[in-house]
């Protein structure tokens, strides 16, 4: 995430009121150990706003919460939030450009992507495997085995 310029969704570390330690309580909420003050990281702010304002655009969310549209798009790609069901605005599949509501790929491209990934991983794994004794015929008692280097 740091490579994308996102600093961990601006997670609060210290309480603004008493400088106590903020403890994560779930879904973007943090509570101070000392004074029980509640603060939210970027995800928590976006989630709360969307719950109260269903169908809000990324621009509206940015304006209301101060969370950048770039961070909001990242949350959509990470499947932390989704585009509203009745929205006229969609994300696009990274492979085929079909409109999608969440993630990086449409269902069809998701399957293709993972199949290609598995194939590449198998090929890489098989490159590192040396087979000794295979293909020899006529020798009685020859041992055949696989050795990984």
In short:
The protein has 149 residues and is an alpha+beta fold. The chain has a domain at 2-105. It contains four helices and seven strands; from the N terminus they run E-E-E-H-H-H-E-E-H-E-E.
Describe it:
The protein has 149 residues and is of the alpha+beta class. The protein has a domain of 104 residues. It contains 4 helices and 7 strands. The chain has a 3-stranded antiparallel β-sheet with strand order 1-2-3. A two-stranded antiparallel sheet has the order 4-5. α1 packs across α2. It is flat. It starts with 21 loop residues before the first strand and ends with a strand. The model has no long low-confidence stretch (mean pLDDT 83).
């Amino acid at each position: 995430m740091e490579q994308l310029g996102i600093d961990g969704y601006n997670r609060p570390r210290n309480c603004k009121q008493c400088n106590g330690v903020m403890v994560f309580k779930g879904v973007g909420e943090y509570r101070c150990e000392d004074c029980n003050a509640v603060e939210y990281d970027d995800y928590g702010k976006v989630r709360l706003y969307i719950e109260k304002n269903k169908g809000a655009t990324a621009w509206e969310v940015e304006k209301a919460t101060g969370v950048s549209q770039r961070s909001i798009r990242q949350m959509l790609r990470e499947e932390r939030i989704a585009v509203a069901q009745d929205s006229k605005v969609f994300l696009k599949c990274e492979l085929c450009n079909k409109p999608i509501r969440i993630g990086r790929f449409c269902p069809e491209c998701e399957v293709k992507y993972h199949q290609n990934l598995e194939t590449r991983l198998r090929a890489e794994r098989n490159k590192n495997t040396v087979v000794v004794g295979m293909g020899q015929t006529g020798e009685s008692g020859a041992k055949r085995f696989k050795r990984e280097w």
